[in-house]
Amino acid sequence: MTDRRYWRGVRVSTIVLGFLCALLSARVAVDAIGFVRYGLQMDFAAFWTAGRASAAGLSPYENHFDRTPPIWDGIASYRHSRFLYPPPAATLFSAISSLSYPQAKALWTMLIALSVAAAALFSQAWFDPQATFVRRCCFALIVVGFQPLLALFERGQVDGLVLLFVVLMLGTLASRRTEWIGGALFALVVLLKLHLVLAVPLLFYRRRRALGGLVAAGAALLACALLFEGESAVMEYFGQQLPRIARFGESGPARSRIPPERMAALRGELTPDTVALDGRTWRMEMLEFTINASLVRTPIGRAAWEACRAFDWKLAPGQIGLVLFLAGVGLYLPIRRRIVGRKPLPDTPAAIGRSGLAAITWAQLVAPLGWSMGTVLLLPAAPLALRALSGPCSSRARLGSWLILIGLIVAAVADPLLRILLPASTPRIFGSEYIVAQLLVLSGLLLSRAD
Questions:
Q1: Minimal CB count within 10 Å: which of 47, 62, 181, 428?
Q2: Which of 188, 190, 206, 209 is CA-nearest to residue 198?
Q3: DSSP helix/strand/coil, 275
């Protein structure tokens, strides 16, 4: 009788989990279709416009609003564009910019959706290959219920591709024969998310083959940039654009703003919440969410800036992020050495996944341009935690796994729930729930790694 009740309970929980997964998957699909049909997807607008400029032989880092028709994303209020990536990325986007904007954004959204799905499948296969159906459903539920996933589609950001490259990189690092591929894949990650270069020393410590793959792939990308974009574009990016991006991000000094009368002429009779691009009018934003996921734009970052200012160090936000990154690593290493000594990290997918995700999460946290969409990179930690909790493990590993799951739940539901339950004037912790979520997941990964 007891066994019958147990299996009946298992069947009920499986049905409930499957129903919730199907329901949330349908919600994500419906919202993504709505974003494609009616929304601007403003970050992809910057990518597509940069591709158009590159294909026309122009700088992707400038707004060519004086041309007919103008090569401008409809949002940027500075003479420089909102495109922040190195020249090889502009070459990649020039291919998709040959399509009309509605076609390009539909194709891009499909590519991001497939990338997220593939990343979830590979994460499950590498980090929890013996998972039960219930554990697989729990992981799927976390993925499709993850609020930043909707923000990712609404903005048309590139983090879905980055997630896939990160998961593939972590999986290939588990074998000596393929770790050079992991290094090459991380070169693509850095191309799309420059701040993750901070994680290189932690990811590839004592991994010469992986480091060699990273250097070789980086050299290949540089050669492509020189071939397709030209030496002047490469020199312009590293000499002018990158320092500006490190200091201002998408914005800039007041003198570089587009004159108000020119902006008014470009926008015509559009309402403030609409944008015209490629002959159609789009809604500028279709989803309300907390955008910040960076410690640099919090009181912690401000305190670090004030501390540096006391020594007469005038640092840009990017340099503040580097200071925070080094401070965090400097605090963690002595603590770990005291707990576990100099025990080397085992070459298992789970161990490499925990250490790699910890390094990437910390690099994300201290990036000045760390947005909530980027927290999708936390998702591969879920199968690691679910696997640890389903079997025998130490109390430290169990605590770490619970912290990971709590952090993922906070990232998944805290933002929309707080918007429903609390007035808009209520102050938020650190200005962003996603910072709290990342800190919880990072703490859980480090506790599990130190075990």
A1: 428
A2: 190
A3: strand
Is the alpha carbon torsion for 330, 336, 337, 338 positive or negative? positive
| DSSP codes of every residue in 187-231 | HHHHHH-GGGGGGHHHHSTT-HHHHHHHHHHHHHHHHHHHHHT-H
| pLDDT on residue 47 | 95
281-322 pLDDT, tens digit each: 999 999 988 888 998 888 888 888 777 777 777 777 778 888
DSSP 251-308: ---GGGBPPHHHHHHHHTT--TTEEEETTEEEES-------B--GGGSHHHHHHHHHH
- Which residue did the predictor score with more confidence, 449 or 327? 327
DSSP 257: B
Torsion of CA 16, 17, 21, 22, to 10 degrees: -30
Half-sphere exposure of residue 451: CA atoms within 13 angstroms, side-chain side: 20
Longest pairwise C-alpha distance within the chain: 79
1 pLDDT above the threshold of 50: no
CA proximity to 173, closest of 213, 143, 133, 145: 213
CB-based contacts of 273, cutoff 8 Å, min separation 6? 283, 284, 285
Amino acid at 427: P
Phi and psi at residue 91, in whole multiples of 5°?
A: -65, -40
Question: Which of 185, 157, 316, 326 has the alpha carbon at shortest distance from 242?
Answer: 316
- Taking only the tens place, the pLDDT of each residue in 327-361 is 888 887 776 666 655 666 667 888 889 999 999 99
Nearest to residue 396, comparing CAs of 344, 334, 349, 336? 336
Neighbouring C-beta atoms of residue 102, cutoff 10 Å: 15
Name the residue among 428, 382, 451 with its Cα closest to residue 149.
382
Spatial contact of 246 and 319, defined as CB atoms under 8 Å apart: yes
Q: Can you tell me the distance from the alpha carbon of 76 to that of 61, in angstroms, rounded to the nearest whole number?
A: 11
- What digits encode the pLDDT tens for the residues 375-432? 999 999 999 999 998 878 788 889 999 999 999 999 998 888 877 776 665 555 445 7
pLDDT tens digits, 77-120: 899 999 999 999 988 899 899 999 999 999 999 999 999 999 99
pTM of the model: 0.92
Average pLDDT for residues 208-223, to the nearest whole number? 92
Q: How is residue 156 written in tokens?
A: 């048309």
